[in-house]
Amino acid sequence: MDSAARPLVAAEGGPVGSDGIDIAAVNEAQRRAQVSMLFSGRSPSEDEIRLALEREAFKAEHKGHEKKHFVMFLIFVAVLAMLPPTVRYWRRRHPVSYRLASIGSICLIPPYFALANQYFRFVTIWLIYAAANTYILYLATRTPLYPRTPRRIYQWFALTNKVSYMIFLIGMVLFCFCFFNAVPGLTDTELFVENSMLTVFYGLYFGLVSRDLVALCSEKMAATLGYAVSNGLPTKYLPHGVCCICGDELGNTSSRSNNSDRNSMSFEHIGEPSSSMTKEAPMEPTHKLECEHEFHACCIRGWCVVGKKDTCPFCLEKVNLAMFKRNPWDKQEMHYVSALEYMRFLVGWQPLVLMLLAGVFWVLGLE
């Protein structure tokens, strides 16, 4: 058989010419030479050549698709423009489904990607945090509700909120060190930059999850106590000097009898004075809203600041959240709360939007 008629296949499986030259290797060398000409005055590294080759291959693959890309860009802009009003309408008209979807997305999407990319440190921290909050949710949904449960739950979420806030601040300080290269040889390393960004992420992510979980707990506990309702007027009489958030008396940290006496009480009467409530305890700070309803300071903080409620727990009158910028709540913490909402979009809604866009592009045959 003539040599020209033989299959032109190299030992590795690549095509070769009649003289035995590997055509693929020649083409690769030519492309590398063309790419190297883009870096005038210096020799590019292998990574730079590889990225340049990938960019040129991408351009060649999508050549002539400008009109299709323009349509995809218009769809992307339209989805982004429609997202905020759609989310606001969803949150206003269907708050339960919105809250469940929001909590589900921020609780499940980051661990999924972390597990898929083998970020086991984040997965381990997430599992520990999930186990602790599962127990908290169990306490908040028990019926009858123990009188001290609301206070303990608000204290727990206030603690997690403060810890998350401190982690966020530490991460921001470390990131500023990286930005200004405060310690050359340390703050300009890839490991230091990565750890500073991870610290910021941990502070924002777990702070966001805590705020959403305490919102669920506060509504469930308020419904169990019966003093607060989601709409309309409360149907249960609120005795004078009782905090309707936790059902405990104002002024004392613990004015009730021992646990056995309290557990024997029906939860419909939580907060009502009785003959066993005679033990004095240290005074606890209280806070009065503009509607003249008074609460424990830690309870109303848990309801409004941590629990994201902007109404009075009893009469549902609008609460001016600006009043919480005075002591004992710092103004910086309110900025942190605002940053958490941006974090919600980043870890919760952004993946869902990308999935929606991918579905739309697939249906329309756009790639």
Chart the SSEs and their pairings.
Elements: H1 23-36, H2 46-61, H3 66-93, H4 95-116, H5 120-140, H6 149-180, H7 190-225, H8 259-263, E1 286-288, E2 294-296, H9 297-306, H10 331-364
Antiparallel strand pairs: 1-2
3D structure, described in words:
There is one protein chain. The chain is an all-alpha fold and 367 residues long. It folds into 2 domains: 3-63, no CATH class; 99-364, no CATH class. The chain has 10 helices and 2 strands. It has helices at 23-36, 46-61, 66-93, 95-116, 120-140, 149-180, 190-225, 259-263, 297-306, 331-364, and strands at 286-288, 294-296. Strands 1-2 form a two-stranded antiparallel ribbon. Helix 4 (95-116) runs antiparallel to helix 7 (190-225). The longest helix has 36 residues, at 190-225. It is elongated. It starts with 22 loop residues before the first helix and ends with a helix. The relative contact order is 0.09. Residues 1-14 and 253-280 have low confidence and may be disordered. InterPro entries: RNF121/RNF175, Znf_RING, Znf_RING/FYVE/PHD. It is a multi-pass membrane protein. Residues 243-315 form the RING-type domain. This is RING finger protein. It comes from Coemansia reversa (strain ATCC 12441 / NRRL 1564).
